[in-house]
Amino acid sequence: MRALPHLKQFTEVAEQEIMHSGHVACPGCGAAIAMRLALKTLGRRTIIVFPACCWAVIDGPFPYSACSVPVFQVAFETASISAGAIRAGLDITGKKDINVVAWAGDGGTFDIGFGQLSACAERNDNIIYVCYDNEAYMNTGIQRSSATPWGSWTTTTPGTDFKKERKKNLLEIMAAHRIPYAATTTVAYPDDLIRKFRKAMSIDGFKLIHIFSPCPPGHKALEKDSILESRYAVESRVFPLYEVEHGTHYKLSMDPPQRPVRDYLALQGRFKHLTDEQRDFIQKSTDEEWARLMHFMKVSEAVE
Amino acid sequence: MQKVLTGNQSAAWGAMCAKAQVVSAYPITPQTTIIEELADIVAKGLLDAKFIKVESEHSAMAGCIGAQAAGARTFTATSSQGLALMHELLHWAALARLPVVMANVNRAMAPGWSIWTDQNDSLAQRDTGWLQFYCESNQEVLDTTIQAYKIAEAVNLPVMLILDAFFLSHTYEAVDIPGQEATSKYLPPYKPSIYLNVDDPHAFGGIVPQDIYMEFRYKMQLAMDEALIAADKADDDFKAMFGRGYGVVEEYRLDGADYVLVTSGTVTSTTRTVIDDLQEKGHSVGLLKMKMLRPFPAEKVRKILSGRKRVAVLDRNISVGMGGVWSQEIRSVMYHLPEDQRPPIYDYIVGLGGRDVTPEFIEEIALDLEKRPVKDCDQVWIGLKE
To answer: Residue ranges per domain, chain B?
Structure first.
């Protein structure tokens, strides 16, 4: 196991609450926890862009908003360009030291907003792009997305027609754009999440933070198990926590003792139809993905 | 300062005079030279602006929306398929009440591919909440671009100014460029009362329950009513300062005319010469030029057309299954008049896909108008091949 220097000390969490009660997230929503932590870190000089996604609803109906920073709701596929253009507007009117954050779900990121995301990354627009990934179209009632993992039930992959395609690897795609910073994180590790937002804030150019975000209704999981699911995702290596700088330099954030993938699957009803063989297949592909990731780490270390 | 400019360059120079701060645009024939000219203007430092070189027209409009919401004056330009791709965000800009200004070069829709002019692209966006102005000359393109900001920012609605592909976009004319000092006096810097402000945070565009949505739409309608006044004022002020004005509609040799041809875009210029010839030959025919489609200048049109014998609307567009769009609009506003003041309105479909609308065609329409039976007034296609 690797030494994890940043865990030797406590991560300071700002006391300020910029996200307030009265939001309309489901109980146990990972995306609500993620926002609370992110806003504590980002502070009040932040503008948040929501495309169509759960957070377009969670923030509350007009005239309410759960976030006491400016919020701009935009069309489904336009989170990235909208944030990039807000930055252009701020720059030309001389407004400085403001975080511009696009906050999109996996549908808006992996699917309908994918072309725009790629373009924004290629232009290296100076924004933080956050994908809170609950692995399906949860806002419209649990339809499959290209972030839905192999084997998962959704309302458009029902019964034996469960999803037979693998999940897109977002970080690899974004790394291929050679953006200054890309990272994965999840809500079971607030210190990791906060540290990565801090780092993103300190870097000029396009930053992407991919947050694994448990969704009790969509994953058919217990509300009380969201943090456990998030932790098991990391421990089982289904969702490893790492960073990629400039698209080439990979760095693992933590390497806890490996937990069988079955533990992670067992928490979620969306996988309950899977046979032992199918569960073994997920274990095998998880191990292969991990080995590939370790290869990237090794190459990065060698370059260093 | 006089320069010899194409219609496209005139739109770019208009945006420069208006000191657009963020340009977000994507190339499409025949709009391309607008954004090439602007890229050059920005690169040379003639305009202090950010040019976001986006990957699609959809993002071009999303870029204008984002930058405008951040408090910057924005500009974009497109045409045809590009405008159609923007459709979702045209609604977005208007409902978000953002005074974005865009030039659209009228180009026919595909398939089959056409890069030549007709009005179906912009007329299909009639109901998105944008003001629309159809221009006749390069000077009018430049002047209207500047006026567009004045009007848009007065009523918080976006404005589209429209020019014909090639007949204006790629045709050179001598154009007078207003001085920067005077332009800045006419159009002061953009100072929105509300924008994405971290010192005064607001949430924009969240869910609106059923009991409030209608009121937002009603306010847009009121803003369009205001725009009728704002557009006249912007033109009057412009004329006072620069000596040129256009009017949202223009009457040409209409005094006492029994018959009226109604036109928009460059067909207007050709029609002027036909009217001159026909009046010389003793025909009682005049011209109404329509510049503004939205808000529709209903009162002005009613006043001008009431009591005429017959009206021919030249539609370089077709809403298939119904007819030309301008004629539908005009019939609709004329219906309120008493029957004896309400002339029959004939719909002539002309020049689709860039087909030349020649003086001969227009004369044919004028002569046809005088003798066509009233019951045959639905739709006449001019110059159709067998």
So the answer is: 2-242, 250-381
